Amino acid sequence: MASSAEIAWESIDARFDNQKQQKKKKNRAGAEDLQIKGYPIGGLSIAGHETWVIMPSLNLAFDIVKCPQRAISQQFLFISHSHMDHIGGLPMYVATRGLYRMAPPTIIVPKVIKESVEKLFEVHMAMDHSELEHTLVGLDVGEEFCVRKDLKVRAFKTYHVIPSQGYIVYSVKQKLKQEYSGRPGAELKSLRLLDNADALRAKILIMESTYVDNLCTVENAKDYGHTHLSEIISHADRFENKAILLIHFSARYQLDVIENALSALPPPLAGRVFALTNGF
């Protein structure tokens, strides 16, 4: 349902002029990583079009669509849900790593879609006559995956129109210490992220904020399993994160609309909220 609505919005946005299209190309080509609390974070996230976010220092990627080289270089890929603008590039991600003779990747998906993803790979292997070597892990809410001795990832429940989940990345030292929480593309409904205490205490929280103005009401955003910036503002006192990175903005926005909305954020959000705006 959400994907259909997003595509409809894209058709409306076909009125964008050539100048904006050229600006988008320039932004995508020349984008640099955001530096947030000691972590470089890269990616591109436009609602209904594509979402991928990488943390190169941790060798992690979240969601995959058009398989940019920097996303392919990350060995561990975490999928939030199975909408095409978040999972569409999965076979190509594996195939390209094989082409470059890189180690077979490890892909973590919600357990509920693991069987479907296996069938997806079977179809592509049959058509491509290739092995598409990879390790596929189905992770359920509350379950953990060990990336390496000092890094664990735990899945937590998020709310969308189809099954979805977010991921919390923990830095493991003498005891489990939370360093980072990522949930690109795993949309919330009615900000039920508030039920996930660790996500709200993470050093960095990455979450979608598809709408930032009156383009869409809060109620309509909830119907599509998305979050409105006003909801984040309403619950500002609950976010203990050092930094919050917002992603997945509607393609109907101009860059200045997003920037103006964030610059107007009140305390305690002001100064610690960032936006992934590559492509706008």
Automatic annotation (TrEMBL):
It comes from the Eukaryota. Gene3D superfamilies: Ribonuclease Z/Hydroxyacylglutathione hydrolase-like. Transmembrane segments: none annotated. Pfam families: Lactamase_B_2 (PF12706). PANTHER family: TRNASE Z TRZ1 (PTHR46504:SF2). Residues 75-249 form the Metallo-beta-lactamase domain. This is Metallo-beta-lactamase domain-containing protein.
